[in-house]
Backbone:
């Protein structure tokens, strides 16, 4: 199957699964449920669920087994966007081409929607699903919750908040992104691999390597698009990092060097998969997609 | 051991465990970690962990096995207080006798601290601990995450937000509290019971009954204290519910009837435990404590 077709397949699959697992809009507390569905469903690149599916498929795992982890990582991602967009954080009004949750509803609702989505991610992953075995499922929960918390995504967001208006070195910027976006991207790839009972430690290590590279490449491409794209294509305000005086790869390296670094990272990501068979081709294609995407 | 002595024992035990599991204040991201420790450690009734310990002890479970679930429920509770206290929610400046997290730090930090504590609760409960078995541990995670989310605590908070300035019937008020505070209290008692591998469905059902009664009694006593106590004793602003025009048991029933109902619920809670041996005496004593406490 051509890459873009399988990408659309993953995206459409996770959309259906998310719609199924999110609480129904017409049952109490309906206001909260409506806001949860508004926040998660619709447009979205779904990079993290796509990585879960592609990584699982590298081991021949059935897609039905991967729906749970795929939805869980997307719910964690969606909640983090909602909280990051709040006025006391990044204060963004536009996300995925529509008003952010606190604009469409209100700030209190946005906080609660984020909180409920985080719970739902773990509820999903701990529920009775088609999974490898109880012990591995527990380990998957441990991987996801660690990646989401103070040692991962939330820790990175905290460093990001403190960085506003300060000069960061390239190494400090990388540390911040390695936590803020990198941790959840790494865990997405690892969760896909863990869904295969026989995945070895060294295979999971290679996947983590792969994911570290594309996580950073993804962030660099984000910074490039923030400079070079437009608000309509991005679905969020163009130039907002510069406006908030946030350090980016482009501000530190310049546009050309940033592009070179992103391509180099995609190559390194693919090299990490040298021990994997052709079934990992989706992951290889994704590495290119991450640095070639236009939104 | 006299009841108050064992209560202090549980409280001191969970404080030590929390201090151990919260990330250290001197490692990066240190600002976030300091705020997490500020939010959780120190004064606190620790009712939910106490219920985990007392419920586990009713089955003779070793206290070391109960530390994980005890800390997990307290972290979920602590995160909910931090988010509830935010200006766009209840806008409270005082909690447990000290400035709320967004006053002592800032609002962005308070949001992130809450988010990180929620992750940490699941990380803890999915980690390698002394537990009954993998399957039960997964079920415990499922119970806790459901109780914390849209079908439980967060759902109740959402109903509470919508109730401000509206007239609620007694039944609507009960539904709201059964979710907002009741769900986590029920899950605390159930998690304690589940920590015993041989706990039967009917025993867990009886524990849920018990917990439903004391959860409601706890809330009624909260409403009574909000009317009759003072800010210093409470450690949070006295009269804040009335000030915010929130419906309470006292506003709906009057003080005397509210007191009668709380006592009646404590009696019903104890009646739910009729099939349990003397090892459940801590739970029985707790039912009285909940309605007799002065803060």
Residues:
């Amino acid at each position: 199957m051509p890459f873009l077709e399988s990408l659309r397949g993953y995206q459409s699959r996770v959309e259906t699964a998310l719609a199924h697992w999110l609480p129904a809009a017409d049952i109490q507390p309906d206001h909260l449920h409506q806001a949860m569905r508004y926040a998660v469903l619709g447009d979205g690149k779904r990079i993290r669920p796509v990585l879960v599916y592609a990584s699982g498929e590298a081991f021949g795992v059935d897609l039905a087994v991967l729906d749970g982890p795929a939805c869980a990582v997307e719910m964690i991602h969606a909640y983090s966007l909602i909280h990051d967009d709040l006025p006391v954080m990044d204060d963004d009004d536009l996300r995925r081409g529509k008003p952010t949750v606190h604009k469409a509803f209100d700030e209190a609702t946005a906080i609660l929607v984020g909180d409920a989505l985080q719970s739902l991610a773990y509820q999903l992953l701990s529920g009775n699903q088609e999974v490898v075995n109880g012990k591995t499922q527990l380990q998957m929960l441990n991987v996801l919750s660690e990646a989401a918390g103070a040692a991962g995504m939330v820790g990175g967001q905290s460093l990001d908040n403190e960085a506003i208006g300060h000069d960061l070195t390239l190494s400090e910027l990388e540390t911040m992104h390695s936590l803020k976006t990198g941790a959840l991207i790494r865990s997405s790839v690892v969760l896909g691999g863990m869904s295969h009972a026989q995945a070895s430690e060294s295979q999971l290590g290679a996947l983590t390597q792969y994911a570290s590279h594309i996580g950073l490449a993804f962030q660099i491409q984000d910074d490039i698009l923030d400079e070079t794209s437009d608000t309509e294509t991005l679905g969020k305000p163009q130039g907002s990092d510069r406006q908030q005086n946030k350090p980016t790869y482009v501000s530190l390296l310049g546009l050309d060097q940033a592009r070179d670094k992103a391509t180099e990272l995609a190559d390194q990501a693919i090299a990490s998969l040298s021990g994997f068979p052709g079934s990992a081709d989706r992951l290889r294609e994704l590495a290119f997609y991450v640095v070639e995407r236009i939104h």
